[in-house]
# Entry
Amino acid sequence: MAGTYTTRLQKVGALLPEMRRLLLEWDDGPECVARVIEQNLVASPSRLRTRDIVQRGFVPRYVESTPPTIWRALAVLEHADWPVRSMAALHYYCCASSERLMWDFVTEWVATRYSLGLRDVRTSDVLAFLDTAADSRFPDGRWSPTVSVKVARGLLSALRDYGILAGAAKKEIAPIYVPTESFAFLAMARHEAGVRAAALRDDPVWRLYLFSETAVERLFVEAQQQALLTYAAAGSVVRIEFPENTLEGYAHALAERVDRVA
# Structure
């Protein structure tokens, strides 16, 4: 995961329809970017906008991703017609793991607020969060007030589109729905990124979805019951194994279960 904050969210938010379309069209060919732009595969109003969507959105999230080239596995699920709300949780992870600001703001601020029973989220909250962030998050210097506001608004809009927030002008925390199959895919993605055993169960990634420790435990048990993975825990000793060796292979296995995914 990148360690610095970027301003990309002021120009490219969630863009779920565009990202889903690109997953269906993407390949490893050297002419892929040029083809996407030339054919305007995301129905953008201009080539410049298409380039922004590809270079500021798709590539950081799905190609230079954590784990790398996660687009291959997600494309399998998109081709299998997984429902939008089942895919949304996965697209959200891809964005948050490439945008450190989103990851930090949700895991450190939104999740804490939610645990306290508080629900409202404002642009001023993001601005206050940025003010307290370490200087190292801004390698080129802290942003101007104008840029900070634009990024803050872009962040909140993206979180609304992913289903973490709800509302237009006034936004409130509204946890995203995560089916067991989507949870299992996320667990495998983190496993492939090098997070294993107890570290996977206790991974901060679950705070992105506002899960409590009890909820994470329940989801691992449900995933085991559905033969999506093997899970065993006895205190601090945790064993988590997957039926496939690669995330793409796991996606193919999950794609065969499309009729069971809500």
